[in-house]
Design brief:
113 residues, alpha/beta, three-stranded antiparallel beta sheet, 10 strands
């Protein structure tokens, strides 16, 4: 999979546009992902989405970095992968495209703030 475009509130992955936050796993895109709290990422928001064998977990915290990754989510992501990257969403998208060519990558991307 490849992220072809990211702009505030919109992402295009393999030719399909999404207007809500997304989870990208090695097996597909979940385009209707939403969290319990819009600007906090908790472990419960990720459970059931993390596949085995994830090498890199990427979190995009929004265009301006307003989504906070809470300690329980940090621990879950660290336990599920060997590398964790947390960046504002534009840089997270770049990291995803670069790393997913050769590694199993999981990404949780907040598309707005």
């Amino acid at each position: 999979m490849r992220i072809e475009f990211y702009g505030f509130g919109k992402i295009v992955i393999d030719g399909k546009a999404y207007y809500r936050d997304v989870l990208i796993t090695p097996s597909g895109v979940k385009g209707d992902w939403w969290r319990r709290s819009s600007h906090e990422l908790r472990a419960e928001d990720l459970r059931g989405s993390l596949e085995g064998g994830i090498e890199v977990a990427i979190v995009g915290t929004g265009r301006y970095g307003l989504m906070k990754v809470l300690p329980d989510a940090l621990q879950l992501l660290r336990d599920a992968s060997s590398e964790l990257i947390i960046e504002r969403t534009p840089k997270a998208c770049e990291a995803y495209n670069e790393l997913s060519e050769a590694r199993r990558v999981f990404a949780a991307l907040h598309l707005t703030c």
